[in-house]
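This protein record is not my work; I was only asked to verify it. Where you disagree with what is written, explain briefly why. This is what I was given:
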Amino acid sequence: MHKVILDWTASVIELFARLQSHHQHYTPAQSLG
C-alpha cells in the first residue's frame, strides 16, 4: 500500500515539475492573454 502512495506522489511531483518548467517559458502577461 505504501509503495502505491509513493509512486502516486512521485507522479504528482513530476507533473508539477513539468508544469513549472512550461510556465517558465511564458511571461505572466502572456499567460493571462
